[in-house]
Design brief:
The complex is a heterodimer of chains A (412) and B (332). In chain A, 46% of the residues lie in helices and 19% in strands. Chain A has 412 residues and is an alpha/beta fold. Chain A folds into two domains: 32-151 and 288-367, Response regulator (Rossmann fold, 3-Layer(aba) Sandwich), CATH 3.40.50; 154-281 and 368-398, Rossmann fold (3-Layer(aba) Sandwich). In chain A, helix 1 (2-17) packs antiparallel against helix 2 (23-31), helix 4 (85-97) packs parallel to helix 5 and helix 6 packs parallel to helix 7. Chain A is globular, with a radius of gyration of 22 Å. Mean pLDDT of chain A is 89; it is low at 11-30. Chain B has one domain: ABC transporter involved in vitamin B12 uptake, BtuC. Chain B has 15 helices and two strands. Chain B has helices at residues 2-8, 12-15, 28-47, 50-72, 80-96, 102-124, 129-149, 176-199, 201-211, 213-218, 223-249, 259-272, 279-293, 301-315, 320-328; strands at residues 166-167, 171-172. In chain B, a hairpin with a 3-residue loop joins strand 1 and strand 2. In chain B, helix 9 (201-211) crosses helix 11 (223-249). Chain B starts with a helix and ends with a helix. The chains are: A alpha/beta (412), B mainly alpha (332). The A-B interface holds A 42-43, 47, 51-52, 77-87, 89-91, 93-94, 97-98, 110-111, 114-115, 117-118, 134, 136, 141, 178-181, 207-208 and B 49, 51-52, 55, 145, 148-149, 154-158, 160-161, 176, 245, 249-251, 253-255, 291-292, 294-299, 301-302.
């Protein structure tokens, strides 16, 4: 608001000093600076899937958009929320109140993601969540200022559960983290497995942050299920995958479907432990010519990391935002985050990472979901050559239907 | 260590306190420090970001409550996150779902802390030293897993979108500055209450128990009752701090009940100065400032924090305030 008044005053001053029609408008356009804040985990468990790579991808989007040539200056700031919701909330408020940040991007960790969602809505800025997975962002807590770009737990369950059955994995056993996140993932996946004609033979729950998965893995093997579904996250997933490799589960023909995994996790596990795993991502750097072109452009600034879908989401959301900015004018985009998001929803999306797509009224970005299998060390031809494509779930089928989300934006 | 300086300081130092502040139990140095604190509270929000200051004050109150137990009773609790976190959850739930006004929500948080304090204190107070720390840690982990499972806490999403509401149903707190004055008032009340307790006859008995428990018992004091009361008081204030923080941010999450939070409050107290009145608040300020203002350094946050801790451990053995007090030869 005050920013608005200031630009107005500046324009008035220029207009009174230089009596040339048309010049004030140009002067205003040139003086507009947009600020994008990348808020994520730079030192903890989510560093590899968000962290500095996300910031580099946002910078790449600014370069690729060519917005600087249109007289709009875009700055990037970044901060480490340390996976503490109060730290994340303080930074987000401070960015908006004091530093004039217009857009907040990335934000892994669902508690922080939802906290920022509330703040951005209150302050009428724009928020593109890429690394968070909670469906609440487009459900009960959906907001006119938020776009949930890359993935959510519903899409993971749908793609991994439904598409897996089509490739022959029709009997399942779940190893589930014993809290709401794990329960939801198991319940959703079970539904899609059954809808596709498969059956679930059983499940076992383990406490959060377990170190010993041997008894659960033995139970899963004894069930003789063709697929063992891991409905857990973070260190639990890493530990269970490693121990499954030690037991030789995949070598005996059982598939392990990891419901939440990124290519960076495969990299840190190594192909020896990760080979044969099945997982879902909405982006893979070696998927087609456009994704390879994007990866080639951004790679020099990533310091050895490769982009995962979460990073691609940061790139694509900022690129689309800057297209909307070029369309509606930077001053208007700065004045109201909700207007900018509405313009983004009205425009079809097209970028190198996700191809053509669209954004739904509840803030859900729609694009296909891909089911990948991790290659064996023999199949892998080069660095980060990790995935082979098993199945594609189309953009129409991959996401939770609008009517099931309970988003209040839909009824009005 | 810090204990010597407290017991060795003659009682007469309190007599020389500034008039008016004597009643609160402050000596002259403490009175000056307290006036500085008041000045900081009054002008702080005009120079620093109010939300950051509010967070700082919530953690300062939490650390002061913790210090009451470790600094003056000598009990190292490693489970204080359960009072802080559950206080936050209950305050958030009561404000959001039951529609409580902010002051009632904060009191609900305090009551939750007190209730948990009675239950866990009843079990833990019978043991000392490492056993006491382990029992409190175990109980706190139980509470953590309860919070992870229970419906009302929202699991790993936490309770979100808690309204700040209207104080006494009248004053709107949605502006940061008005919320700040409430938080500052809560902090001051808690701080003065702790200070009053420390300097009361009850507090003197607590110190006696810390110094030599068998002797205190032989003098006829029921040590367990005293320890229990101090424990519950500390838990209550931790609950109040947690509840206030939940209202400030409008969220209550698992981070606050996690064991790492119990560790953080130990760190704050040690860094500021164990058994000093102002130490915990200073320690909390240092830690919270680091968390916030180092955030932009990205991956370097933890490295810089580690470096600062090493410097503090080497240079300030008695904590920042403890060390300053020793230089100035006063009690702070």
């Amino acid at each position: 608001m005050s920013q608005d008044r200031r630009t107005l005053l500046k324009t008035a001053a220029v207009a009174s000093a230089v009596p040339v029609v048309g010049l004030p408008a140009r002067a205003r356009a040139q003086s507009t600076t947009l600020k994008i804040g990348v808020l994520n985990d730079q030192s903890g468990v989510y560093r590899e899937i968000s962290g500095p790579t996300s910031t580099a991808c946002v910078r790449q989007a600014i370069v690729d958009s060519g917005i600087a040539a249109k007289g709009v200056n875009v700055e990037v700031v970044q901060a480490d929320h340390q996976n503490k919701p109060d730290v994340g909330a303080t930074i987000a408020r401070q960015w908006i109140d004091r530093d004039g940040v217009d857009v907040i991007v990335d934000v892994p960790n669902s508690a922080v993601a939802l906290a920022v969602n509330g703040i951005v809505r209150e302050k009428n800025k724009a928020y593109f969540n890429s690394t968070g997975g909670t469906t609440e962002l487009t459900g009960g807590q959906c907001s006119p200022n938020t776009i949930h770009w890359t993935y959510d737990t519903y899409m993971l369950a749908k793609s991994t559960g439904g598409a897996m059955v089509k490739t022959g994995g029709d009997s399942w056993f779940f190893i589930t983290a014993d809290y709401a996140f794990g329960h939801d993932l198991e319940r959703n996946t079970t539904k899609f497995v059954q809808e596709a004609g498969g059956k679930v033979l059983g499940s076992v729950k383990h406490p959060l942050q377990s170190t010993d998965f041997s008894s659960y893995l033995l139970q899963a093997q004894q069930s003789r299920a063709k697929v063992i579904g891991l409905a857990n996250a973070g260190t639990d997933t890493i530990n269970s995958v490693k121990q499954a490799a030690e037991f030789g589960v995949t070598r005996r023909g059982t598939k392990i479907a990891v419901l939440l995994m990124f290519i960076n996790d495969v990299h840190s596990l190594g192909l020896n432990a990760a080979q044969g795993l099945v997982c879902t991502e909405s982006f893979y750097w070696d998927l087609n010519d456009r994704t390879r072109a994007f990866t080639k452009r951004v790679l020099p600034s990533l310091g050895g990391n490769y982009p995962a879908m979460s990073h691609a989401g940061c790139y694509a959301s900022v690129l689309h935002y800057l297209k909307a900015v070029a369309d509606m004018g930077a001053a208007a985009a700065k004045a109201s985050g909700a207007d900018a998001v509405a313009r983004m929803k009205a425009m079809p999306t097209d970028d190198d990472c996700f191809g053509q797509g669209s954004i739904r009224a509840d803030g859900r970005k729609l694009h296909p979901a891909f089911l990948f299998e991790v290659k064996t060390p023999a199949e892998s031809k080069g660095p980060w050559d990790y995935y082979k494509l098993l199945q594609t779930t189309s953009a129409e089928d991959a996401w939770r239907p609008l009517s099931e989300g309970g988003c209040s934006l839909i009824r009005t | 260590m810090a204990a010597d300086s407290i017991t060795a300081t003659p009682e007469t130092s309190r007599v020389r306190g500034l008039p008016g502040l004597q009643a609160l139990g402050f000596n002259r140095a403490q009175s000056i420090a307290f006036l500085l604190l008041l000045a900081f509270l009054a002008i702080g929000p005009f120079f620093l970001y109010p939300v950051f200051l509010m967070k700082l004050l919530c953690f300062a109150l939490f650390a002061c409550a913790f210090n009451l137990l470790i600094g003056y009773v000598g009990l190292l609790s490693f489970g204080h996150a359960m009072f802080f976190g559950m206080g936050g959850y209950l305050a958030a739930h009561s404000a959001k779902v039951w529609g409580f006004t902010p002051e009632l929500a904060i009191l609900t948080g305090g009551a939750m802390g007190a209730l948990l304090g009675v239950i866990s204190g009843w079990l833990a107070i019978r043991r000392q030293g490492i056993y006491f720390a382990m029992i409190t840690l175990a109980l706190a982990q139980m509470v953590y897993f309860l919070c992870l499972q229970m419906r009302f806490t929202g699991g790993e999403d936490g309770i979100q979108g808690v309204p700040r509401g209207r104080l006494f149903g009248v004053f709107d707190l949605s502006a940061d500055l008005s919320m700040y004055w409430l938080v500052a008032a809560v902090f001051l009340i808690g701080f003065l209450l702790i200070n009053r307790v420390i300097h009361s006859p009850f507090g003197q008995v607590l110190t006696a128990i810390r110094e030599n428990e068998p002797r205190a018992i032989s003098l006829g004091y029921r040590a367990d009752d005293y320890k229990m009361l101090a424990f519950v008081l500390s838990a209550t204030l931790a609950g109040v701090a947690g509840g206030t923080k939940a209202l400030v941010f409008g969220i209550a999450t698992l981070t606050d009940v996690y064991w790492a939070m119990s560790g953080e409050v130990v760190l704050m107290t040690l860094l500021g100065g164990l058994g000093t009145v102002f130490g915990p608040a200073v320690g909390a300020a240092v830690i919270v400032t680091m968390q916030n203002y180092l955030a932009e350094f990205g991956a370097w946050v933890t490295v810089i924090q580690g470096g600062i801790f090493v410097i503090c451990v080497v240079a300030f053995r008695a904590g920042i305030v403890g060390e300053i007090a020793r230089w100035l030869r006063v009690r702070l």
